[in-house]
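Known limitations

Structure tokens in this collection are predictions and should be treated as such. Users comparing against experimental data should check residue numbering before alignment. To illustrate the layout, the record for FAD-binding domain-containing protein is reproduced below. The input appears on top and the generated tokens appear beneath it.
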Amino acid sequence: MDQGWAEPTRDAGLKRLRAFVPQAGRAYAERRNYDLPGHENVSRLSPWLRHRLVTEEEVLGAVLAEHGRDAAGKFVDEVFWRSYFKGWLEMRPTVWGAYWGELVLAWDQVQSQSGLRERWEAACRGETGIDCADHWARELVETGYLHNHARMWFASIWIFTLRLPWALGADFFLRHLLDGDPASNTLSWRWVAGLQTPGKPYAATASNIARFTEGRFRPNGLVEEVRAVSGAPNPDPGPLPEGGRIDPGKRSVLLLHEDDLSPEWLFEAGLAPVATGVVDATGRMSILKASERVQAFKAGALADCVARHEERLGEVTDGLDNREAVMAWAEGHGAEQIVTSYPPVGPVQGLLRGAGGVPIVSPVRDWDARAWPHATKGFFKFRERIPDLLSASGF
Ligand SMILES: Cc1cc2nc3c(=O)[nH]c(=O)nc-3n(C[C@H](O)[C@H](O)[C@H](O)COP(=O)(O)OP(=O)(O)OC[C@H]3O[C@@H](n4cnc5c(N)ncnc54)[C@H](O)[C@@H]3O)c2cc1C
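Generated tokens:
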């Protein structure tokens, strides 16, 4: 996969979707677990899906039209993992806060313990001597992507063989993945560590790696007898956000952010903004700086969204990177409401949190509002609802 494989535009996402659709049926189910050069057997749609340059409904609509529910079942499940993780975290936002607590602690240790710092740097640079882990660290940094199986193996090696804090690994991913996502990333790392499904850590084994890389790697010395990382039990699910409704009679401004770059549904709900602000939350994703590749993807994706809707946006202001700036900008336009697609748990939600100022109205998309309430337990319980969720979307 070349370094410029993912252009941050909706057109590029739709092109990728069209190219992938023929393979999204049984071929995907049979070959999706193989981590092979070029990654032709998986969709690589995650950078566009994560930022909603292309939506879950659009992807599933195209795939189901070609293959039907039976043949596309595996792919459909995978797309719903994203919705499941978002709903799970939305009902337990303290898990995101706890991850940040772990990260700050681990970061302090990295700065005060030279041995830990050297091991962490070697793992991020791909210099551990474990050939597959080194390959994946470099692939991640060079392309902003890793295959799902490689993410699982890498996280397991990071935690159990290299004995590095899991939160530092999750942070390494968030700095470099073009699809870096608070819910999918945090909860997947927790799952590998044995925190998400308590007491059931994921062990990367040499034989599994050899099989699903078709013999490219057969690492020696992996710790395959693993014990779960200890941590607090999962919190009980709390209430989901109500989000609010747009009042078309009020003078409104629109706030665009990286979690939803397809704002058409807000216009359809009656929004006619006098001005539009663009949130920049890139600096809040990691304790360090996001990679240049990630920064460029997010900036490009936001610019693409603005360009697609230019006539409807009014005056556009970029780079709103804190709540005070958002409020000052909205007040400057005499706004009575700030409308924004509901930002799920993560940097944008954190940036907007606070009291006072112009009211923020953040409706929840129907897709999320229907799916999230079912993320109370494990994915397999959630999965039972997928046929109804598909029907509710008209598939
Ligand atoms: C440790 C770890 C960290 C991860 N971090 C992220 C992350 O930051 N952002 C992210 O989007 N995904 C993350 N994932 C999930 C998954 O690996 C990626 O979504 C997937 O590899 C993206 O590649 P693809 O588009 O080719 O997937 P495909 O196999 O083609 O799947 C199609 C779509 O389904 C969704 N999907 C597939 N598998 C998963 C999954 N396990 N969890 C959630 N959604 C899924 C994605 O939207 C994906 O684009 C992580 C997984 C692990 C094990």
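For this record: DSSP finds 20 helices and five strands in the chain. The longest helix spans residues 94-112. Please report discrepancies through the issue tracker.
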